[in-house]
């Protein structure tokens, strides 16, 4: 899902806590405090400086975009336009919905500068599922950097930064900023998993070969959700912590989390990694899951566990409708016979800000209980809503545009299903 202001600000600063602070990070963080206190002009000044001190295009354009929003909040169209033009014309900012769906900029719409900006942004997506692009050049860059680093291990971080991250697509650079943190951190993890990575090289380079399978899933979605658009699919190599995400450039899939096979050496992997790395043939299910996230921009903001579970469960449910399976089949296996127990525990927290006990909680994974059970609960709620709907196309649309999660739960009649467990 592609977050916009002010949500993206909070997400960005959560991410920043995983890496050492740079000057740009510090300025962004300071600006966040002023923004929260509605001192928008000061926030804009700090975020402009953050953009000017950043060292990669994603951080630069993010800083300029934040600054433009803050200045617009302050009704300073001169500086807002200045920052937007730097983001779009100089640094490739292309998130059109982030601008057109934000009422903050309404007072600027009559300007010819606004029309020029909007006209310059070319969204990456297509309305035709058969025209979707599949890009695996970043995976090839990774292995090139990997081989160079193997010869010069003492300089590995600089090598990966120069030959992989900085040379890669904008999608990879987004993934680097939001999921990798630092090249040093990346190298540290890869040094601990060398046997696994050496064993998956061949499979990691085959992801683009499944393009017809991805296209079939996308075409299936177009049949049940005619409004769907389809972004490019980028494959990258990560550090076994985020199988997929999306941004305005497209879907980003970490192919190294889809290479489990009889020839994969798992001796260095954790329990969670062994359980969550999918097979290569399971990659289309993860792609379908991430596509649904990309299309969830119409949903209301909310911090409850219920909302978080529905967002993830929906991606699994609709992903299954179009591809044949969910990206989390193991959760179904575990939940069989335990449905009532899981739902009872979930209900105790569902209206609280407690998603970290149910989603992205790999640190709670044990041999007897998987992480991410919130996905399964959300899947069941969405399945119940779809099952009782007479108009299936409308049901898909309604799911992707939920404005009240408590009402959606009630409308799904899921409680009736749960009462039979």
Strand content: under 5%
When the domains are counted, the total is: 3
The structure class reads mainly alpha
Could you estimate the helical fraction of the residues in percent? 55-70%
- What distance lies between the first and last C-alpha atoms, to the nearest angstrom? 32 Å
Low-confidence stretches: 1-20
**Rg measurement, Å:** 22 Å
Q: Would you report the number of β strands?
A: 4
Number of helices: 23
Largest sheet: 4 strands, mixed
Average pLDDT taken over every residue: 92
Outline: globular
Order of helices and strands: HHHHHHHEHHHHHHHEEEHHHHHHHHH
Q: Which strands sit side by side, in order, in the main sheet?
A: 1-2-4-3
Describe this structure in words.
This protein is mainly alpha-helical and 421 residues long. The protein has 3 domains: 7-120, Serine Threonine Protein Phosphatase 5, Tetratricopeptide repeat; 129-279, no CATH class; 296-418, no CATH class. It is built from 23 helices and 4 strands. Strands 1-2-4-3 form a 4-stranded mixed β-sheet, with helices on both faces. A hairpin with a 2-residue loop joins strand 3 (244-247) and strand 4. Helix 1 (7-16) runs antiparallel to helix 2 (23-36), helix 5 (77-90) runs parallel beside helix 7 (112-120) and helix 14 (211-224) packs across helix 16. The relative contact order is 0.08. Mean pLDDT is 92; it is low at 1-20.
